[in-house]
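In practice, a research group might receive sequence data for several interacting partners and want a quick structural hypothesis before committing to experiments. The following worked case mirrors that situation: the sequences arrive first, and a predicted assembly follows.
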Amino acid sequence: MIEVNNIYKSFGKKKVLNGVSFTAVKGEITCLVGVNGVGKTTILNAIMNLTPLKKGSILIDGKPLSVDSYNHIAFIPDAAIMLPNMTVQEAMDFMKDYYKTWNGNRAKEIVKFFRLNPSDRISNLSKGNQAKVNLLMGLALDVEYILMDEPFSGIDIFTREQITEVFSSRLVEDRGVLITTHEIQDIEHLIDRVILLDNGVVYKDFNAEDMRETEGKSVVDVMREVYNG
Amino acid sequence: MSHSVKSFIKLTSFELERISKVFFGLIGFTLISNLIGYIFPILRFNQDIEEYMISQNISVEMAHDALGPFSFDRVLNSGWIAFPIVIGVTSIGLYALFTWYREWFGKNTFAYRLFMLPVPRTQVFFSKLVTIYIGIYSLIAVQMLSVFGGYQLTNWLIADAVMDPNPLISLIHSNFLFAYLFPVDTGLYFTINLIGLTGILVVFTIILLERSYALKGFGLGLMYAGFVIVLGILPHFIGEFAGNRYLLFYSELMIITYILLALASIGSIIWSRHLINRKITI
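A structural hypothesis for the assembly, expressed as tokens:
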């Protein structure tokens, strides 16, 4: 379980996170939602120890963040993060060199699934294919948790559908997924839990299916209620 | 070999691969420039002799006597030799900045990948440091081999009778640039290397401070650099402060300076380690 306990973060005088707490568990897709600037990416960065917190703690399966955390959790950011002059194959070799959790067979499967060409240079790929490379680098790791930051951002509808398929495939199965997205309608049917952020705190933490069944509201409906007042 | 050592070697060789084009470019530039630098003064010398012979209507021997022997010092002082050294030193200096900032501001944000590797982040720090040092020593080695080769070439192209008999070592020792590049004196070698190491570590600390606290961090870094400079030169003023310029022997003064610079280096490493592990922001 990923436990985010009462975290605070400011950028200059601007308080972004003001005591955020939630958990994300294995086998579930948890979606962090909120308007721009609410701190979704900051939370993912903090979980990966890529930004310091003013206060609070984060635990991965009960353990504080350490070098070993990267063997249990993968982050797929909303940016190309492998060197542009690397080919897809070289990027995979790089990952294999450093991560004992790298699963070569799964990597091959993902390359096939996304129809990527291993000899293509990353700099020559379209934005959509670069996003697929990012997903490949994260999903091919045998880790318990995957964090994804805006995986659909700036991507055409066909690529988006292909990425959506990943969430219902065995590439994600049994793992805990924590995702941030604005294109929530694309994966709404796949989400288990929703953490709605507003004004630096968790405004609502609910089970998406329960919400649909008990109150007849979709995630987007709940978001509209909150953000449109 | 432990997993930690393996990953450090991998990271360092990865960094070396990334710098290789620049590095081989610098080596190529140095060798080509040096080669021109070896041949050009010899041609010039021969031309001067010939012109002098014609203008004075004298023999070669007389012209040699009048113009003096050919000294390899002419080669060492030429811009063809000095310029690649200046370029090399500047490039290495800039690389100390570039090696960090490219991870954030390159076409892709590789800092994400680098800081999410399941290896201690200090390995990233030291792999960058070691890469710079491999670059520095390789360039010095290339320059050293080139100068020795150039000296042989000059001996081959200039008649023994016309060649200045001073050995290469004494020429290097008396040349301002080469005396620092290939210090013959152990104390000077140690001083230069310690100042260089401290300098690079302070630059790394400033960069990591800036990457952690933005502009405030940069200001703090500059203050830290100022503090280290004061620390390094302070012992040399102890005598002045005490009102006795001969309070300490030169060797004592240097030992105090070495200790203070070593402390500054260790301090920089400890501070950088803290920043890279706990404060850095991607």
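Before designing any experiment, note the following. Chain A has a mean pLDDT of 92. The domain at 2-227 of chain A is CATH 3.40.50.300 (Rossmann fold).
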